[in-house]
């Protein structure tokens, strides 16, 4: 494949960014998208130019580090993490033909300031978890599995929500830059398990307050978040969050 790349370059969070264009030829369709960027960076390095900064770690769809907006879509044209996207997926995309330009941008949201080029600071998601996405009772060593019975539907639902890897694509895709799918996933997986009950209602209040403080927007049921989520976290976890929030208010739960 011969491709052109239009990539967002930004020195740091205090400077304005801009797009720069690069041409690459002989790109194998079986390369991953990140390997294609590695090829570009090797070339830039040899030319004495600054490589494009982007995040990645596991490159196996597990860690959530690798988010990019590719041709306007969070993680690109297929529902996966960016590291699991291959150049053949781009080639098979009907809106793309050989020689076309691929636009690559960082996640764009107030809560995710750009640190450099394509890398954003996603620590706001960590702070939402720190506000309540944990169980503070000492559960000791792992108990015998049958000693804490969990109904199968609840276990399945909790597991579905726990699949969230904190990549932030839901925020990047949402016109309101809302992190509600992420926050609701954490609230749902803890709130359905017996260990999560003691802090269930204070958790939802504290996590939502932190969500708002970080500058993420509200949910208006658009659904882009679930459409791009690489781990298929369902949008109705947000209903679970809203139900828990309603109960917290009814119970008169106050922030610590
Ligand atoms: S809910 Fe999905 S899109 Fe959002 S952070 Fe979790 S894995 Fe990523
Ligand atoms: S690099 Fe870990 S999920 Fe992509």
TrEMBL record:
Cofactor: [2Fe-2S] cluster; [3Fe-4S] cluster
Record-annotated 4Fe-4S ferredoxin-type domain positions: 155-185
Molecular function, one GO term: 2 iron, 2 sulfur cluster binding
GO biological process, one term: aerobic respiration
Domain of life: Bacteria
Family under the similarity heading: Belongs to the succinate dehydrogenase/fumarate reductase iron-sulfur protein family.
Name of the protein: 4Fe-4S ferredoxin-type domain-containing protein
Organism of this sequence: Actinomyces graevenitzii C83
